[in-house]
Amino acid sequence: MWPSSNNTNISFNNKENKSDESSVTLGMTSAISAAPPKQVDLIRTTELEGTLSAFDVFESKQDLNHRMLVLGKLCSLVKRWIKDLSIKCNMPESVAENVGGKIYTFGSYRLGVHSKGADIDALCVAPKHVSRNEFFNSFYELLKEQSEVTELRAVEEAFVPVIKMNFDGIEIDMLFAKLLQKEIPESMDLRDDNLLKNLDQKCVRSLNGCRVTDEMLRLVPNVDTFRLTLRAIKLWAKRHGIYSNVLGYLGGVSWAMLVARTCQLYPNAAPATLVHKFFLIFSRWQWPQPVLLKQPVNVSLGFTTWDPRVNVTDRYHLMPIITPAYPQQNSTFNVSHSTRTIMMEEIKLGLEITDEIMLGKAPWKKLFEPPLFFTKYRHFIILIVSSANAKEHLEWTGLVESKLRFLIVTLERNESIVLAHINPENYAMPEMHKDPKSQCCMWFIGLEFKKMEGLNVDLTHDIQQFTENVNKHAINIQMYKETMRLEARHVKRKQLSQYLPPGVIKRERKSSISCPKNGVPTTPEVKKRPSTDPTDGESSSKKLRRASNELNSTSFDDSSNTSLATNDDSCNSFETASSTMTSPVKLPSMQDSTGSASETLCT
Length: 603
Known about the structure:
Blueprint: E1 25-26, E2 29-30, H1 39-54, H2 61-88, H3 93-96, E3 102-106, H4 107-111, E4 120-126, H5 132-144, E5 149-155, E6 162-167, E7 170-178, H6 201-219, H7 223-239, H8 252-265, H9 271-283, H10 337-358, E8 379-387, H11 390-412, E9 417-422, E10 427-428, E11 439-449, E12 456-458, H12 460-476, E13 485-492, H13 502-514, H14 540-552, E14 563-565, E15 584-585, E16 588-589, E17 592-597
Parallel strand pairs: 4-7, 12-14
Antiparallel strand pairs: 1-2, 3-4, 5-6, 6-7, 8-11, 8-13, 9-11, 10-11, 13-15, 16-17
Helix pairs in contact: 6-8, 7-8, 7-9, 8-9, 9-10, 11-12, 13-14
């Protein structure tokens, strides 16, 4: 699976550098085309930039200055903390004054593609005498004393331990790494592989974000072009509900690496062209062939790297996108069969739309129109997460969200389920259904079943196992409170109005009339995706009438032979036949280890 290449990598440190020869190697292979942009490409780029501005993705200078001010304050706090800690370790004050300590940024802020209101990913780098325990204790206490800091919480048990906070209105996720250095100079470059020598895994993982971001910027031929292209792809992915690493889609780093690879293949292209080529390349990519920005280098420091020739588990990764910094890792480990299918459908549709845009037959805003979700599926699982107050709810929803992808994988294993589609957006429970004293939100999973007569699906065990695992984990990390609840319900499409704001269903109904089978509303010129629907032989006017009749009726036509049993106790189970009403799924109660139902909200 490793692609082999004898070509020499060429990196570009200057954003104005351009390649004039198509044979120049950018990353793993030579460029597909080094042709400069045509006038029409520059026109489309101007149109793209205007559309992005309309979506308010660019931050004002005032907001940017505020971010820099916040980072300056945070850096001062780090230096003060390290100095005080050094003095407590019997270090002379004159020496402690110079041991340093530094804040590095990574992610979208470091790449220069952060949007208004986005968080900042930061890394605190400390000298060798400062421990991680001190970071999560004494530095955490120092942050608590700051009047600008709110929503402070430490997630020490995470795969990459982090302190999360809101600092003067800016969300910040702060990691920690100590280097085996007596001092941390301001000029330290974290790209030096030797800095990793003898570090523990948590420090290496924490450093990885900065190292990957810096290497990515070094490997693209034109940083400004890369940034505008990435802004467009990030907006598209978020609007289409496929931007979430934790839920099994691609996260910001993965999308950035795909855009960087596109830039390498078309080093002189304009951003509008690169957006189009992005969809062209990855709609045809032969997954699980990995995407790499450069030839992997073995530094021999003893850390595990992604290599399917050596690591058997790496051979089962579905959509590998490999980070360019040592130790190389697959940034898309969480991708499942369902999420890959959903992303590939959206990428193929993106190609169709951008084909039309580049020909001047559709505006850029068409690319950013959200797809249908609630009118796309007949059956849904709703996961309801509730807790007593805002602080508990923040922790509880974060834990549940981090586990949702395991439920998706479990549902995929059911032979009757073709697709389990998790919507990344969570919704507030309508006031009429929730306890006014509690905090409550919901995630929706759309289910697509095999088309079989009399299909009966029992998901009781899958749902109970998921909730038990979440509850056990909450207990193990001492997070669980008696007021924390996790419930699951099965509902049919026609019953969604009980759970969603009216505008959500109304928008999708209106959009689906113009394209009832496509998943995304399109202009008449944009062709639809191939469909396996048996009504595809009908004329377009007949299908439009059919969709209009369905969507304008008081409820959706959800009659189906599929029956979804959710509890082996026949007195409490429910089915999805159109003659039955939805009931809550029975879930294991934290107070009753025998699996009795926790208290649920009635519909």
